[in-house]
């Protein structure tokens, strides 16, 4: 499996707008067999949010970036973002909550 | 919801031993209703591993540390660890893979 942890810093006051777009992205992946997790979270910083993704493999994740819905959402989100950081790429081994 | 991202640096060569203990911890939480995720992963660093936890709330997580099986596993793992870092505490909002 392939894991990705991404932290987004939004333009001031745009976090909720970006969250809505990312939740739409997650919904669009509900039936995508290679996407196991696409979870949005916030922490204490006002304009920061995190996306935790787990895919069957890196190639599946890469291919997903070409999906029309993903490309549209990236285009919509980009002007609302100040910084995007790929915090970690990892390999989930197992545990509770992995389908 | 309450999320936790912890990075463990093990003593040299002890990663697999610690992974086994953490997978045992995850198995012990399978029926724990407040634990939604307890996922172990590795990245490219040889003696480093990550645990991503999602709980219904912080109190449930705190209480779980008092469970006999958790206390036993922490006692077994402690001498195998060089460093434990709580990388992030967050609040998962939604997305794919959250039960």
Automatic annotation (TrEMBL), chains A, B:
Pfam family, one: ABM
Entries under InterPro entries matching the protein: ABM_dom (IPR007138), Dimeric_a/b-barrel (IPR011008)
Oxidoreductase in keyword set: yes
Keywords: Monooxygenase, Oxidoreductase
Annotated Gene3D superfamilies: 3.30.70.100
Thylakoid is among the record's keywords: no
Record-annotated ABM domain positions: 1-69
Molecular function terms from GO: monooxygenase activity
Name assigned to this protein: Antibiotic biosynthesis monooxygenase
Organism, scientific name: Exiguobacterium indicum
């Amino acid at each position: 499996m392939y894991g990705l942890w991404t932290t987004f810093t939004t333009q001031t006051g745009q976090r909720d707008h970006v969250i809505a777009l990312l939740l739409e992205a997650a919904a669009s992946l509900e039936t995508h067999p290679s996407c196991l997790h696409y979870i949005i979270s916030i922490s204490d910083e006002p304009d920061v949010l995190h996306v935790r993704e787990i895919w069957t493999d890196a190639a599946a994740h890469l291919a997903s970036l070409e999906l029309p819905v993903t490309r549209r959402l990236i285009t919509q989100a980009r002007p609302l973002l100040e910084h995007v950081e790929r915090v970690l790429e990892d390999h989930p081994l197992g545990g509770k909550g992995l389908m």
